[in-house]
Write a structure and sequence with these properties.
The complex is a heterodimer. By secondary structure, chain A is α/β, with parallel strands linked by helices. Chain A is 49% helix and 10% strand. Chain A has a seven-stranded mixed beta sheet with strand order 3-2-1-4-7-11-12. In chain A, strands 8-5-6-10 form a four-stranded mixed beta sheet, with helices on both faces. By secondary structure, chain B is of the alpha/beta class. In chain B, 38% of the residues are buried. The chains are: A alpha/beta, B alpha/beta. The interface between A and B is large, with 59 and 58 residues. Chain A: It comes from Lachnellula cervina. Chain A: Pfam families: IF-2B (PF01008).
Chain lengths: 489, 446
C-alpha cells in the first residue's frame, strides 16, 4: 500500500465532493485516473468511490430498459476494473450492484407480469386461452419459467442494441404506446406455453407462429421482449428508485462494516492476551479498540516496512488519523483514539521480529486487502510470513474483513494478484551504484493460502475459510462473476 | 534512559518530607478548613478523571506536578512555616506522580540493559583502543560476530603489549583481574559480548593462567601475543578458508542462493565461488533497522554477481526461485538451534516450507554449550531508538503512553529447519553441535 500523499493531492474526500457537481462521464474518467495514479488506494476508499460513482451513473443515466442499465453498469465497471485490476473491491462493488439490479428487475417483472395478467384478463375477456400462459408468469414459477425468462432476457439485449441504433426512444415518448403494447403483449405473451416452448426448440420458427400483429418480422420472442421492455419503462421510475436505494444500502454497508466487525471483538479477545497484528488497518484498529473498552491486553504491531510503515508509526503515535483515508474527511475531522490511549500496551517491532516474538503471542489478527473465493487472502506484504510463523507456533490466525472485500474471482495464478511497489522505498536513488547494479523487489501484497487462516470475521459473522465460497454465492450472481472478461463468459 | 533516574527520587523525597510536616502542621488547620479543601481537591480530581476517562494524564502534566512539591519542599525548609497550611493539603492530595513508565518490552525485560553511547565518563585506566572499539560496537561500524571477535582480540593484544607489570606481582596474577576484566566490562557496556567473544575470552584467560611464572614479563607478553595470533589464524582465518572452500563446492552452476542480512563468511564463500567461475544468482534478503544486507548486495554486485535485493516482506515471493539458502550465524546452540540476526528464523522457516536446503556457515568458535528454546531467553536487545526513522512519526514515541518499541538483535532458528552446518571441521548436522563444541572449545574436558 503506497502511502497516500498528504497535501493537495486529490483523494477520496475530494472525489466524493466533486461527484455531484460533475457530469457522470467526467466523474468516471476522474475515478479511473485516480485509480490509475493510485491516489485512491486501499480497499475501502476504492469501494466507497465505486459505489458512489455507480449511484451517480444510475441516477443520471436515462434508461428505458433494465438491460440497458445493466450494460451501462457493466461498461463503467469494466473501465474501472481495467484501470486498477488489483483493487479487487472495485469489481466486487460493480458485481454487487449488477446482482442487485438483476434482482430488482426480476422482482419488478414478476409484479408486472401479474399486473398485466389481470389487465389482459379484464381488457380482453375473449382471450381466455391466454390465462394459462400469463398466470404462469405471475404465479409461483413452474419448472420451465426460468428458461423462458432467460430467453427473453437474451433477445431483450439485442433489442436494446437496436434501440440504441435508432436513437433510443426517450422515456416520455415510449409512454403513449403503453396501451397498445399491452394489447399486443397479450396475444404474444399469452401464447400457449406449449407453443412458445416449441418455438424455442425448433430451429426454424415457422412463419405460421408469427402472431397477427407481426411487428417483428423474425420471431415472437423478440416481440415478446419489446413489449416487456415497454412495460418495464412504465415501472422504470420505481425500479430506478429501488436500484438507487439498493446502492445506498451497499454504501451503508461499507460504512458500517468495520463497526459490525468490531462488535464481535469481545468474543475473540480476552484479558491479558497478546495479540499480534501488522500494518495500519482501520478495521483491525477498531476491532481492538472495541475490545479495549472492556479488557486489558497487549498488542504487538509489525510495522510492515517499507510500504506501510509510516502509516503504522503514525497510527501508534497518533500523529494523524489512522490511514489518510478521506472517508472521514467528509464529516468533521474525527480523531479515533489510538490503542495506547485506550490503555492497551502497544509494542511496535520490525517485521523480522515476528518469529522471535511469536512464541509469546496468543492470537494473530490480520487485516486484508482482498479475500478470494477459495478462502485465501491478499494482504499487505509480510502477512504470509506472519501466518506461517503462527502456524509453526500453533497460534490461531484470525482475519478481519468486510464482506465487500470478498471477491468471487478465483485466480489460479496468485502472482497475478500481487502488486509491486516502488523499489525506491528500499534502495533510494542516493545509493547511486546500488540502484544500477541491483534488481530490487518490493511486493506490496502477499497471498496467504486458506490453510494458514483459522477464522474469518466479517460484518455478517465469523466463518471458516472453507465456507467463504458460500458467502460469495450469496452476494454475487453467477452471470456477473466474469462480466469484465467476455472471453470467459 | 536519562528520564529514568530523574523523577524517581521525587516521590521518595516527597514522602519523606511530607509525612513529618503533616504530623506537625495538622493541628494548625481547623478541621472544617481541612475538610473543605479536601472536598475541593476530590471534586477536582473527579472532574479530571471524567475528562480523561480512564486515561491517566500522560507525560507533561505529571512532570509539572512532580516539580512543584520539590520546590515547595525546598521553600518550606528555608522560608518557615507560614505558607505551610496551604501547601500541606495540596501536597497531601496531589495525585501520586505516576511511576516513570518502563519503556522496555516486558518479554525482554531481563535482557534490557542501558547501552553506553559515548566514551564520556570512561574510567581513566581504559586503553584508548578499547574506547575506540567500544564506539565502533555502539555505532555498528564493527558488527557481526566474527568481526567483533577479531577486533576484540586485537585490542587484547594491544592491552598485553602496553601492559606494564606493577612491582611485586606478575602478569599471570595481575593482568586478568586488573586489566582484562575491566576492559571486558567496559566493552560490554557498549554491547553485550557475542558468543564467539565469550569463547575467545575464556580461552585467553586459560592461556594467561598457563603462563609460566618463570618467564620474564617480555617473554610472557610475546607468548600471549603469539597465542592470540595463532588463535586468530586457526580459529578464524583458516576456518573461514576451509568453510569457504567447502561451501564453494556446494554451489553449482545455475544455483540461486538466497541469503539473509550479512555474514562475512557467506560473502566470502559467494565471492570465492564467483571467482572460480561458477554461474549463480544471489537473492539478498534484508531487514530494518541495520540493513546489513545492502552492504552484502553491493559487494556482490560490484564483483559482478547477479544480485536481487529485497526486504523481508518480499521473502515469500522469492523463496520459490531459490535453490539453496546460505545463512551466517551468531552462534550455534548446543541443542542444534541457530542464533542469528533477527529474521533468520523466518527465512529458514520459509525455506523449509518451500523445501529448499538451509545451510549454515559457522566457525566452531561460535559454538556454545548454552541452549535456547525460543528467542526470548537468550538475546541481545538493541536500543529501541534505533528503530526510529529520522523525521518519521516515531520520533516522539517516548511521549506516547504504553507504547514500546521492540528491537531484539537475534532470533533462534529451530534445528529442524537446518539441513547442514558447514564448519572448518567438516559438514555436520545440527545434532552434532554439542559434540563438536566439546572437541574444539573445551579441550581440557577430554
Amino acid at each position: 500500500m503506497p502511502s497516500s500523499q498528504a497535501g493537495y493531492a486529490p483523494n477520496l474526500g475530494f472525489y466524493l465532493k466533486s461527484l455531484k457537481a460533475q457530469p457522470v462521464e467526467s466523474s468516471i474518467e476522474n475515478l479511473i485516473s485516480l485509480l490509475k495514479r493510485r491516489q485512491i488506494t486501499n480497499s475501502r476508499p476504492c469501494a466507497v468511490a465505486t459505489a458512489h460513482l455507480l449511484l451517480q451513473v444510475v441516477a443520471k443515466f436515462r434508461w428505458t430498459n433494465v438491460n440497458k442499465l445493466i450494460e451501462r453498469i457493466q461498461d463503467v465497471g469494466r473501465r474501472l476494473i481495467e484501470a486498477q485490476p488489483r483493487e479487487m473491491v472495485v469489481g466486487n462493488i460493480v458485481r454487487r450492484v449488477l446482482g442487485m439490479v438483476r434482482d430488482e428487475a426480476k422482482e419488478d417483472r414478476n409484479d408486472d407480469a401479474s399486473d398485466s395478467a389481470s389487465n389482459s384478463q379484464m381488457g380482453s375477456p375473449h382471450q381466455e386461452h391466454s390465462d394459462q400462459g400469463t398466470s404462469h408468469l405471475g404465479g409461483p414459477p413452474p419448472s420451465f419459467s426460468p428458461l423462458r425468462f432467460s430467453t427473453t432476457e437474451d433477445s431483450d439485449s439485442t433489442e436494446a442494441n437496436g434501440d440504441d441504433v435508432f436513437g433510443g426512444k426517450p422515456q416520455t415518448a415510449s409512454r403513449p404506446p403503453l396501451i397498445t403494447s399491452h394489447t399486443s403483449y397479450a396475444p404474444a405473451g399469452g401464447l400457449p406455453p406449449q407453443k412458445s416452448m416449441f418455438q424455442l426448440l425448433s430451429a426454424n420458427p415457422s412463419p405460421a407462429s408469427t402472431p397477427s400483429g407481426a411487428q417483428s418480422p423474425h420471431n415472437t420472442s423478440s416481440l415478446n421482449a419489446t413489449s416487456l421492455s415497454h412495460r418495464i419503462t412504465t415501472s422504470s421510475k420505481d425500479l430506478k428508485a429501488e436500484v438507487i436505494e439498493g446502492i445506498e444500502e451497499i454504501v451503508d454497508e461499507l460504512d458500517q462494516a468495520d463497526d459490525r466487525i468490531a462488535a464481535q471483538s469481545l468474543e475473540y479477545i480476552h484479558s491479558n492476551e497478546v495479540i499480534l497484528t501488522h500494518s495500519s488497518s482501520k478495521s483491525v484498529q477498531k476491532f481492538l479498540l472495541e475490545a479495549a473498552k472492556k479488557r486489558k491486553f497487549t498488542v504487538i504491531i509489525a510495522e510492515s516496512y517499507p510500504n506501510d510503515h509510516e502509516a503504522t508509526h503514525k497510527s501508534v503515535t497518533r500523529s494523524i488519523s489512522t490511514d489518510a483515508e478521506g472517508a472521514d474527511e467528509l464529516s468533521t475531522p474525527k480523531f479515533s483514539k489510538s490503542l495506547s490511549d485506550a490503555g492497551i500496551t502497544v509494542i511496535l517491532m520490525t517485521d523480522a521480529t515476528i518469529f522471535a516474538i511469536m512464541s509469546r503471542v496468543n492470537k494473530v489478527i490480520l487485516a486484508t486487502h482482498a479475500v478470494i473465493a477459495n478462502g485465501g487472502l491478499i494482504a499487505a506484504a509480510g502477512a504470509r510470513i506472519i501466518a506461517k510463523a503462527a502456524r509453526v507456533h500453533r497460534t490461531p490466525v484470525i482475519v478481519v474483513s468486510g464482506v465487500y472485500k470478498l471477491s468471487p474471482q478465483y485466480p489460479f495464478e496468485f502472482e497475478s494478484l500481487i502488486e509491486y511497489g516502488d523499489p525506491g522505498n528500499i534502495v533510494r536513488y542516493q545509493d547511486g551504484a546500488l540502484v544500477e547494479n541491483l534488481e530490487v523487489d518490493n511486493p506490496v501484497y502477499d497471498y496467504v493460502p486458506p490453510d494458514l487462516v483459522d477464522l474469518y470475521i466479517t460484518n455478517i459473522g465469523a466463518h471458516a475459510p472453507s465456507y467463504l465460497y458460500r458467502i460469495v454465492a450469496d452476494h454475487y450472481k453467477a452471470e456477473d462473476i466474469n462480466f469484465d472478461k467476455p472471453e470467459l463468459q | 534512559m536519562p528520564s529514568n533516574d530523574l523523577p524517581a527520587p521525587a516521590p521518595a523525597a516527597q514522602a519523606e518530607s511530607s509525612t513529618p510536616i503533616q504530623q506537625s502542621e495538622a493541628p494548625k488547620l481547623t478541621g472544617a478548613e481541612l475538610k473543605k479543601q479536601k472536598q475541593a481537591e476530590k471534586a477536582a480530581r473527579r472532574a479530571q478523571a471524567i475528562q480523561g476517562k480512564h486515561v491517566i494524564p500522560a507525560g507533561p502534566p505529571p512532570a509539572v506536578q512532580k516539580g512543584e512539591p520539590k520546590q515547595q519542599k525546598r521553600r518550606g525548609s528555608t522560608a518557615g512555616s507560614r505558607d505551610l497550611p496551604i501547601r500541606q493539603p495540596e501536597s497531601n492530595a496531589a495525585p501520586k506522580p505516576p511511576p516513570v513508565e518502563d519503556k522496555t518490552v516486558e518479554f525482554f525485560r531481563h535482557l534490557s540493559k542501558p547501552h553506553r553511547k559515548t566514551i564520556a565518563g570512561t574510567p581513566k585506566d581504559i586503553h584508548p583502543a578499547a574506547q575506540i572499539l567500544g564506539m565502533q560496537f555502539s555505532t555498528y561500524v564493527i558488527c557481526g560476530s566474527t568481526a567483533r571477535l577479531l577486533a576484540t582480540l586485537e585490542v587484547f593484544k594491544e592491552l598485553v603489549q602496553s601492559y606494564v607489570v606493577p612491582p611485586r606481582t606478575t602478569l599471570k596474577l595481575h593482568f586478568t583481574t586488573h586489566v582484562l576484566n575491566p576492559h571486558i566490562g567496559y566493552l560490554i557496556s557498549f554491547r553485550p559480548l557475542s558468543i564467539s567473544m565469550g569463547n575467545a575470552i575464556s580461552w585467553f584467560k586459560r592461556e594467561i593462567s598457563k603462563v609460566s611464572i618463570d618467564l620474564s614479563d617480555a617473554e610472557a607478553k610475546k607468548m600471549l601475543c603469539d597465542a592470540i595470533d595463532v588463535y586468530i589464524r586457526e580459529r578464524v582465518t583458516f576456518a573461514d578458508q576451509a568453510i569457504a572452500a567447502s561451501t564453494t563446492e556446494k554451489i553449482r552452476d545455475g544455483d540461486v542462493i538466497l541469503t539473509y542480512a550479512k555474514s562475512s563468511i557467506v560473502q566470502r564463500s559467494l565471492l570465492q565461488a564467483h571467482e572460480e567461475g561458477k554461474k549463480f544468482r544471489v537473492i539478498a534478503v534484508d531487514s530494518r533497522p541495520l540493513h546489513e544486507g545492502k552492504n552484502l548486495a553491493e559487494t556482490l554486485a560490484n564483483a559482478g554477481i547477479e544480485v536481487k535485493y529485497c526486504l523481508i516482506n518480499g521473502l515469500s515471493h522469492n523463496i520459490q526461485d531459490a535453490t539453496k539458502v546460505l545463512l551466517g550465524a551468531h552462534a550455534m546452540m548446543s541443542n542444534g538451534r541457530l542464533l542469528s540476526r533477527i529474521g533468520t528464523a523466518l527465512v529458514a522457516m520459509e525455506a523449509n516450507d518451500a523445501e529448499k536446503p538451509v545451510i549454515v556457515l559457522c566457525e566452531t568458535v561460535k559454538f556454545t554449550e548454552r541452549v535456547a528454546l525460543d528467542s526470548i531467553v537468550l538475546n541481545e536487545i538493541a536500543p529501541a531508538d534505533e528503530l526510529v526513522i529520522p523525521g518519521g512519526a516515531l520520533e516522539g514515541w517516548r511521549d506516547v503512553k504504553k507504547l514500546q518499541l521492540c528491537n531484539p538483535m537475534y532470533d533462534v532458528t529451530p534445528a529442524e529447519y537446518i539441513q547442514m552446518i558447514v564448519t572448518e571441521s567438516g559438514c555436520v548436522p545440527p545434532t552434532s553441535v554439542p559434540v563438536l563444541h566439546r572437541l574444539v572449545n573445551e579441550p581440557e574436558i577430554q
